[in-house]
Design brief:
seven-stranded mixed sheet, Rossmann fold, 12 strands, five-stranded mixed sheet, alpha/beta, binds nicotinamide-adenine-dinucleotide
Length: 440
């Protein structure tokens, strides 16, 4: 058995309100509080001027919008949405749009802060942003999702733009939705502006390689880690939580490189096969079904126990806090590569560090997505497009260099990799703040 459980099928019953986060204190469950603790830790380590850390505790712009949508039954429903531009010191704001019932202002603020740090870590000329709408797209029709997307875009169009703030996909948003964002924004200004959003379909200015970019980046950092730690990646069983853009593409790329993906999951449940799952078959199954949870040819694991599965490499690629103080002691993996944003709470980080588990942090591990988003934006702005080989080669250069820079800091300063990544990003950000000075 991959994990011990008394209720093997319980996850399938909790579709609407899945409880996959184990036991968590309220503070641990608040992503903004977690993010600010991470900031404080790095600021202290760097002996940063207090005004710079303070600046990062105050997001630059927070917009709350009310989004009226005509539903298919003729009624009008109001959804609450947010766009947070956390920091613009290094360039225009960049960050995804999430559609999820559990979106909250504190979550969007934290995700925007992590985007600021991530762009600095991989040295992209961007600040950080994030958007979110409280909604359950699983219960909405395509038409309703389109109308929600268009009205939300119109509401935030007062602060987004190719030179101001460039959204992208996140949880429950995809290429088609980014196409609608591009079209809606373009309609409001009167001409096509592909550079307003990334993660679009290729036909309207998207980049080759963007779809797989986050998963590819996850693979590159894992391969680098294997080289540094001297283990054979092809012999290290991999488990991936979340089978969406990040998780599914990571699974595909790991398998293409000869690795064994033994477990995957989505919100409905998990799968385990000691001999390795066939990712192509899983992807085919996912195209036909809403969830992979009932895929045959595998043992079933409840979603709320998934992170405790038997594996060497665990890739959380779903939501925040799935690894927390309530389950960190039972994690079997030796290496955790954060495909998701904020999947490991600070309490869990401390436990994992004590246990000698290496965590490659989100702001490095999943930076492949924003890196190719940057390439997409550059291609849109110059109206000249690259081939996929070029995109992947440039992505690899940036991710590998960032990994090595952070690994050096980790070894030289004897700090965990999260702190090392924060130190690198914060140094760059602080320098931009100092150079720009204080207006007026
Ligand atoms: P997605 O909507 O494409 O997929 C999310 C997947 O996670 C789905 O399979 C869903 O069923 C599953 N899931 C949701 N809640 C779960 C839970 N509690 N337990 C187990 N599985 C659960 O989203 P995505 O774009 O792949 O994003 C996943 C994570 O990666 C998020 O944290 C996101 O912020 C982060 N991320 C995404 C990108 C990107 O390019 N899309 C880039 C960087 C980081």
């Amino acid at each position: 058995m991959p994990v011990k459980t008394t209720a093997p099928n319980s996850a399938a019953k909790s579709v609407k309100q899945p409880s996959v986060n184990g036991a968590m204190a309220a503070h641990e469950a608040n992503p903004w509080a977690q993010a600010m603790e991470q900031l404080d830790r790095a600021a202290q380590k760097l002996n940063l001027e207090p005004y710079i850390a303070e600046r990062l505790r105050h997001p630059k712009r927070i917009l709350t919008v009310s989004v009226p949508v005509k539903m298919d039954d003729g009624s009008i429903k109001y959804f609450e949405g947010y766009r947070v531009q956390h920091n613009l010191d290094r360039g225009p704001a960049k960050g995804g749009i999430r559609f999820h019932p559990q979106v909250s202002m504190d979550e969007v603020k934290a995700l925007a802060f992590w985007m600021t740090m991530k762009c600095a870590v991989v040295n992209l000329p961007y600040g950080g942003a994030k958007g979110g709408v409280i909604c359950n797209p699983k219960e909405m029709s395509i038409g309703e999702i389109e109308r929600l997307t268009r009205r939300y875009t119109a509401e935030i169009s007062i602060i987004i733009g190719p030179d101001k703030d460039i959204p992208a996909p996140d949880v429950n948003t995809n290429e088609q939705i980014m196409g609608w964002v591009m079209d809606t924004y373009s309609m409001t200004i009167g001409y096509s502006a592909p550079g307003v959003v990334t993660g679009k379909p290729i036909e309207v200015g998207g980049s080759l390689g963007r779809r797989e970019a986050t998963g590819r980046g996850v693979f590159y950092v894992t391969r680098e880690l294997a080289e540094k730690r001297g283990f054979d990646l092809r012999k290290a069983p991999v488990a991936i939580q979340g089978f969406g853009n990040v998780g599914m593409n990571a699974a595909k790329i790991f398998q293409q490189h000869g690795c064994k993906v033994v477990a995957v999951s989505d919100v409905m449940g998990g799968l385990y096969n000691e001999d390795g799952l066939d990712v192509d078959q899983l992807m085919e199954y996912r195209r036909k079904h809403e969830s992979i949870a009932k895929f045959p040819k595998a043992e079933k694991i409840p979603a709320d126990k998934f992170v405790e599965v038997e594996c060497d490499i665990l890739i959380p690629a779903a939501m925040e806090n799935t690894i927390n103080g309530g389950n960190a002691a039972r994690i079997k993996a030796k290496y955790i590569i954060e495909g998701a944003n904020g999947p490991t709470s600070n309490a869990a980080d401390r436990i994992l560090n004590q246990r000698g588990v290496t965590v490659v942090p989100d702001i490095l591990a999943n930076a492949g997505g924003v890196t190719v988003s940057y390439f997409e934006w550059v291609q849109d702005m110059q109206a000249f497009f690259w081939d996929e080989k070029q995109v992947n080669a440039k992505l690899q250069d940036i991710i590998v260099k960032s990994f090595r820079d952070i690994y050096d800091i980790h070894e030289t300063n004897k700090v965990d990799m999260r702190l090392a990544a924060f130190m690198l990003g914060l140094r760059r950000l602080a320098q931009a703040v100092r150079i720009r000075g204080m207006f007026p």
